[in-house]
Phosphoribosyltransferase
Amino acid sequence: MQFRDREQAGRELGEHLRVLQEKGTLPDPVVLALPRGGVAVAREVARALEAPLDVLVVRKIGAPFQEEFGIGAIAGDDPPLFDKRSLDQLGLTESDLADVVERERNELRRREERYRQGRPAPPLRGRTVILVDDGLATGSTARAALRAVRRQAPERVILAVPVGSPRGADLMREEADDVVCLYRPSAFMAVGEWYQDFEQLTDDDVLEALHGGR
């Protein structure tokens, strides 16, 4: 099974969530995308639910000399959230990663400023927050995002992805009130293998989705 692209995945995910909405389980929803890839999926979800769309910028903390290997993540002004097991396996301490965290924090703030264009973040207290990404692998960025959302006192927090690893989805149930994952392939290596078109999105793509190109 493969999605044609993120837009198709978002439409399928949105239809599934719309059924839940019609049952009354998603009152006062707001859709938050994890940029960049999650924005194209979340836009379709927001359309299906007729809900506002915004972003929650999260940055992965990669291992030194192997940046693609995520060993933690940061969201907003929250302290970094590290995978203690990965740190131990690599023989690293949190202080060893101070420079990496500072660099990712600066990039996080740059993206927030560009994506928001002066708009404040939406209030989440008492609302149903649907956090959307294009897929779920280890869950390090999703965990940081969910904890950042939870601190803002929403009524419910739902993580919604088109595809994810079974282990990642199960782990996120400890953080979210519900995890909606359409497909959980047992042989899961990377999110991109489940999309025919997995072209990387740009900041301009995010702005188009959020502001209609403004």
